[in-house]
């Protein structure tokens, strides 16, 4: 798909780009250590990144405050190697992107929809971070430079089925 000469370009898409996709972007940027160029976007971007997402990233030593959700505008002018939707609504709204990127769906619950005391909400964000950590570790472990496009698509998609 791509040689070792350039990082893989990965895009995470969610509806609001305020929690799951932002967390995935932050975690892969940190874990990927230069092997990936990562971005995230939302089909209907929120006004701000969820403060609890920023908080659970900070617990991992990732400074993410001051980030703003991004919309889908301009993404069709960029080339992506892998595009991963992290919510069902975004999967349905995923735009057609140039270069035939590998498309995968890693559906997961939206921690921002959890109601009740803040501690319960915080734990939902931590669980989302743990799930993303596991999935991103599997992505990073893939021998991307040795896989054909269809095999890569299958393997990245299968990660989303892991729980």
The computed structural class is alpha/beta
On the 0 to 100 scale, the average pLDDT is 87
Strand content: 5-15%
Biggest beta-sheet profile: 4 strands, parallel
As laid out across the biggest beta sheet, the strand order is 2-1-3-4
What is the molecular shape? globular
Number of helices: 5
Listing every helix as H and every strand as E from the N terminus to the C terminus, the arrangement reads EHEHEHEHH
Distance between the termini: 27 Å
Number of E strands: 4
Question: Are there runs of 5+ residues with pLDDT below 50, and where?
Answer: none
| Rg measurement, Å | 15 Å
- Give the helix level as a range of percent: 25-40%
Short characterization:
This protein has 163 residues and is α/β, with parallel strands linked by helices.
Tell me what the structure shows.
The protein is of the alpha/beta class and 163 residues long. Helices cover 39% and strands 13% of the residues. The protein contains 5 helices and 4 strands, in the order βαβαβαβαα. The protein has helices spanning 20-31, 51-58, 88-93, 118-141, 149-161, and strands spanning 8-14, 36-42, 82-85, 102-105. Strands 2-1-3-4 form a 4-stranded parallel β-sheet. α3 (88-93) links the parallel β3 (82-85) and β4 (102-105). α1 packs across α4 (118-141) and α2 packs across α4. The radius of gyration is 15 Å and the shape is globular. 37% of the residues are buried.
């Amino acid at each position: 798909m791509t040689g070792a000469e350039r990082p893989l370009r990965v895009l995470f898409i969610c509806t609001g780009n305020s929690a799951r996709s932002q967390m995935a972007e932050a975690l892969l940027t940190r874990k990927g250590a230069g092997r990936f160029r990562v971005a995230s976007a939302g089909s209907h971007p929120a006004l701000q990144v969820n403060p609890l997402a920023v908080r659970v990233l900070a617990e991992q030593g990732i400074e993410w405050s001051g980030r703003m959700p991004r919309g889908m505008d301009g993404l069709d002018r960029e080339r992506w190697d892998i595009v991963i939707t992290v919510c069902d609504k975004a999967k349905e709204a995923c735009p057609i992107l140039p270069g035939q990127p590998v498309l995968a769906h890693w559906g997961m619950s939206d921690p921002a929809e959890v109601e009740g005391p803040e501690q319960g909400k915080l734990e939902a964000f931590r669980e989302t971070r743990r799930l993303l950590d596991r999935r991103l570790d599997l992505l990073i472990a893939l021998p991307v430079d040795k896989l054909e496009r269809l095999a890569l698509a299958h393997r990245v998609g299968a990660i989303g089925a892991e729980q």
